[in-house]
Amino acid sequence: MKGYELAKKIAELALDKKGENIKIIDATSHKLHFDYFVLITGVVDQHLSALSEHIRKELSRMGVKPIGYEGQSNTKWVLLDYFDVIVHIFDPSSRGIYKLEELWPDVKIETVED
To answer: For the domain that residue 60 is a member of, what is the CATH number?
Structure first.
């Protein structure tokens, strides 16, 4: 599983744990080392941890493991790197500061909701 299919699965897993303001950003037109960002907001530190653990555990059961993981000690922003898909899980204030949705004004952004 890779690319959009993986991004969509990650978004669905985030919904399982009540992730908020979930966006899939299609960066394929920018020729970067990844194709998609998945942005997720968690309410509090424990929520960010629960979201990241749920995503990692469920994808691992499917044979998909991250090549990188940052933010275990910093629970304001967790990053999971699945090579084609980079997952950012933010607390609300950090998401507002970094505004990753605004990096490329010409990309397609999909909102994922229940």
So the answer is: 3.30.460.10
Q: Judge whether 66 and 56 are in contact, CB under 8 Å.
A: yes
Rounded Cα distance, 40 and 63, in Å:
22
Q: Which domain holds residue 29?
A: 3-112
The per-residue pLDDT for range 26-71, each reduced to its tens digit, is 998 888 888 999 999 999 989 999 999 999 999 999 999 999 999 8
Residue with tokens 């999971």: 80
DSSP state of 95: H
Between CA 75 and CA 59 the distance in angstroms is 21
Give the distance between the most distant pair of CA atoms in the chain: 35
**With 70 as the cut, is the pLDDT of residue 73 above it?**
no
20 DSSP 8-state letter: E
